[in-house]
Design goal:
Helices cover 37% and strands 16% of the residues. By secondary structure, the chain is an alpha/beta fold. A 7-stranded mixed β-sheet has the order 3-2-1-4-5-7-6, with helices on both faces. Helix 8 links the parallel strand 1 and strand 2. The longest helix is centred in the first third of the chain and has 20 residues, at 22-41.
Length: 301
């Protein structure tokens, strides 16, 4: 379990500190980390910070709109396969609209550390300055947004870009969780750099859990290159292997054999996007969400 307090880390937003001299930054943070170490070692810590069970979180009113998708996303079973415990330091990569944030943050933050990490904006292209500004300000705006989703204190929500981890975070993370994002990283030619950044955050025994839309094993590369949302499982394993990871295990917990994974409109044909609106809507809703691989990786030696 990482020893950094969410409150301490949340005060170290990387973009706010970007222009501070490294020596000055070290002087400023040393007392904070010393205080954090004392707080974590106090015997009363566990008693004062016991949070809700995962079962209780999944039943919370804030998830009323999310819960119908549990049958496809299987959060309890997925997190059990990823061996996530609520006293861990857990990174959610690319939280998006917060479906998993509303599960992870209330469950993990009371006992451990919940961290939201987004991609390095310096490696991305934007269609407008407004879009770029929103992306670059994400570490500052996400905690308040997540607090609104969950009813939690924004100071308990940690957020930074993958290449701007606050000092002391690297090497402390127990789990990095990546939900349905690998295809986007490949489409943006950022998969290698992002996986290297995330690997640096992991503790020596830390692991990465991945859920990703799955193409057939024999699907042509022209379809399974990420542009349609689907990837071949062997390609995802190879990508992680090339970036310093080793496959620990795979699960079929998020499999959907009813999905042929060959839609002309890509994975967005199916729920929840329903790309074609009411056209064949009943057919797509009967199939449900995409077939997905569920993979667990560790840092390779």
């Amino acid at each position: 379990m990482g020893a950094l307090s969410p409150l301490v880390i949340s005060r170290m937003r990387p973009k706010v500190l970007r222009n501070i001299n490294p020596g000055e930054l070290s002087v400023r943070l040393t007392p904070l980390f010393a205080a954090t170490a004392l707080a974590v070692s106090a015997p009363a810590m566990a008693d004062d910070h016991t949070g809700p069970s995962l079962e209780d979180v999944l039943a919370m009113d804030m998830r009323a709109d999310d819960a119908p998708r549990d049958e496809y996303r299987n959060p309890a079973e997925t997190l059990a396969f990823f061996q996530v415990e609520p006293d861990m330091t857990v990174v959610e990569y690319g939280p998006g609209s917060g479906w998993y944030t509303r599960v992870l943050a209330p469950w993990v933050a009371p006992q451990g550390t919940y961290i939201a990490v987004d991609g390095d904006t310096d490696q991305r292209s934007f269609s407008s300055r407004t879009q770029e500004g929103r992306a670059k300000s994400w570490p500052e705006t996400f905690p308040a947004m997540a607090a609104e989703w969950t009813g939690m204190d924004a100071d308990s929500i940690v957020a930074f870009e993958s290449d701007e981890a606050p000092e002391g975070v690297a090497g402390t993370v127990d789990r990095v969780l990546i939900f349905r994002s690998i295809h986007g990283l490949l489409n943006g030619a950022r998969a290698d750099s992002e996986l290297r950044n995330l690997r640096a955050l992991l503790a020596d025994d830390g692991m990465v859990g991945v859920v990703q839309h799955r193409a057939d094993a024999d699907a042509p590369w022209s379809y399974a290159n990420g542009a349609n949302g689907y990837l071949r499982q062997d390609d995802v394993v190879a990508l992680f292997t090339l970036n310093g990871f080793e496959l620990v295990d795979s699960s079929e917990v998020n499999a959907n054999p009813d999905d042929p994974a060959n839609w002309e409109g890509g994975v967005w044909t199916l729920p929840p996007v329903l790309r074609y609106g009411d056209e064949d809507r009943a057919r797509y809703e009967a199939i449900g969400e995409s077939d997905r691989m569920t993979l667990l990786f560790k840092k390779a030696d």
